[in-house]
Amino acid sequence: MVNVIKHPLITHKLTQMRKAETGTKDFRQNLDEIAGLMAYEITRDLPLKPVRVTTPVAPCDTYELAKPIILVPILRAGLGMVNGICTLIPIAKVAHIGLYRDEQTLQPHTYFEKYPKNIKDATVIIVDPMLATGGSAIAAIDMVKKQGAQDIRLANLVAAPEGVQAVEEAHPDVDIYLAALDDHLDAHGYIVPGLGDCGDRIFGTK
Ligand code: URA
């Protein structure tokens, strides 16, 4: 399932990020804020378990989250979405997957992976701002499945239809959450209209 999260605040903030003249500080801050807003939708159906707590007034039968949450940023641009989501979900553990894209073949290569222990029982949210060819997302999903993950969600800021289709074909069990579905990929693998190289814009590199 692909879920394009529609909210005026997300649209406005993404527009600021798309502008070529937006600098590193504002780009990073808007990404942080959008990631937090997206987290609300991504976690909407999380299971709860009944608990009894004691308020200052009386015992109270209520609920809390039933499963751990693990955030998996794909390095390096995925790091830009971690703070915003962790602000909303401070109990989330953070795994890391390091992939780089071969500029010629556009294929992903793994250079780093590190996971918390409880990935089998957790809701796993893979984050990467740009879903272009889908190669990195598919590789990251393969990797967390190999670790035993069963409940996997993918969160991207902007996607190309080509990337969405590739992920849906490779992993139809993984729900995809987007802030925007753009038009197409160009010959260099950039999303059009997109927002350029997201990693470079987050970290101020070129
Ligand atoms: N990665 C980016 O940072 N931007 C794109 O448009 C595609 C992949």
Supply the key terms:
single chain; 206 residues; globular; nucleotide-binding; Uracil phosphoribosyltransferase; binds uracil; 13 strands; alpha/beta; two-stranded antiparallel ribbon; glycosyltransferase; Upp_B; 6 helices
Characterise this structure.
Pathway: Pyrimidine metabolism; UMP biosynthesis via salvage pathway; UMP from uracil: step 1/1. The protein has 206 residues and is of the alpha/beta class. It has helices spanning 8-18, 24-42, 82-88, 135-146, 161-170, 198-203, and strands at 2-4, 48-54, 59-65, 69-75, 93-94, 96-101, 108-114, 123-127, 130-131, 151-159, 175-181, 184-185, 191-192. The longest helix has 19 residues, at 24-42. The model has no long low-confidence stretch (mean pLDDT 96). It binds uracil.
List strands and helices in order, with pairings.
Layout: E1 2-4, H1 8-18, H2 24-42, E2 48-54, E3 59-65, E4 69-75, H3 82-88, E5 93-94, E6 96-101, E7 108-114, E8 123-127, E9 130-131, H4 135-146, E10 151-159, H5 161-170, E11 175-181, E12 184-185, E13 191-192, H6 198-203
Parallel strand pairs: 1-11, 4-5, 4-6, 4-8, 8-10, 9-10, 10-11
Antiparallel strand pairs: 2-3, 6-7, 12-13
Helix pairs in contact: 1-2, 2-3
